[in-house]
Amino acid sequence: MSIKVAVIGAKGRMGLEVVKAITSASDLELVASIDQNDDFNVVKNSGATVAVDFTTPDVIMKNIELLIEAGINPVVGTTGFNEEKIEKIKKLLSGKTGLAARLVPNFSIGAILMMRFAKAATKFYDSAEIIEYHHPNKIDAPSGTAIRTAQIIAEERKAHNLGKNPDATSSEIPGARGSKIDGIPVHAVRMQGLVAHQEVIFGSSGETLTIRHDSFDRESFMPGVLLAIRNVTKKPGLTIGIDDLIN
Ligand code: NAP
């Protein structure tokens, strides 16, 4: 039996690709697709068990709330989450036994491997910084992927008692050293011609290691989106990412 799926933000850059990918998958059925100003009841009454959301950080919490209320399992590609929002989602889900949600900062397999490799490299280096590069229409900075990578590196540094990055900066024009996510400097570039790219740079005496990932086309996110749709209901509650599905 096919999985009934709704898409929210269906006319956006990612939404259009998701609609195409779902329509081409024989085990999935697209039962609703809505965008800005469309009636949410279309999703609510569609019979969807899973809804994929690629909208904007300012509307995503409301959408998640509506989906959970309707008993639909959200797969969320929209970025811009913080601890407070994550806690709120957990609370919403706790009242709905068996319901699941996945917040996925990056659906690209290469980006997930980049994060894994970054975690593996962390303990060997004194310094770690991140540079993320995106198209100029992206409205949040830094990217969800960069934030997640910084958190992973920070957790790993803590586990290995690495302390702070060495940095003698005592005078700074604000922003020159990037934004600090759990102490890891993250620099965001916005440029015409780019899609989604990230470098994680590690350094110790006499050497650096750069791990770089490039998404040149939004199609690259689709295998991860389909994987999340097919598996979301198997793990009730909130799951971040699709790392557990890629082995
Ligand atoms: P986009 O092209 O701006 O698409 C967003 C779409 O959502 C637009 O069509 C927008 O309509 C629509 N929308 C806004 N409010 C809505 C609402 N309340 N209900 C339904 N639809 C609504 O953006 P995008 O490039 O596709 O990116 C979308 C999100 O995905 C961003 O947060 C981005 O960072 C994230 N992203 C995640 C991944 C990942 O792997 N997780 C990859 C790429 C992008 P209007 O244009 O009329 O406002």
Mind explaining what this structure looks like?
- This protein is of the alpha/beta class.
- The chain folds into 2 domains: 3-103 and 219-245, 3-Layer(aba) Sandwich (Rossmann fold); 109-216, Dihydrodipicolinate Reductase, domain 2 (2-Layer Sandwich).
- The protein is built from 7 helices and 11 strands.
- The chain has helices spanning 13-24, 41-44, 60-69, 83-94, 109-122, 144-159, 222-231, and strands at 3-8, 28-34, 50-53, 73-76, 100-103, 127-134, 179-181, 184-190, 196-204, 207-215, 237-240.
- The chain has a 6-stranded parallel sheet with strand order 2-1-3-4-5-11, sandwiched between helices.
- Helix 3 packs parallel to helix 4 and helix 5 (109-122) packs parallel to helix 6.
- It is elongated, with a radius of gyration of 19 Å.
- The mean pLDDT is 96.
- Bound molecules: NADP nicotinamide-adenine-dinucleotide phosphate (NAP).
- Residues 8-9, 11-15, 34-36, 54-57, 59, 77-79, 104-107, 138, 140, 221 line the site of NADP nicotinamide-adenine-dinucleotide phosphate.
- NADP nicotinamide-adenine-dinucleotide phosphate is lined by residues 8-9, 11-15, 34-36, 54-57, 59, 77-79, 104-107, 138, 140, 221.
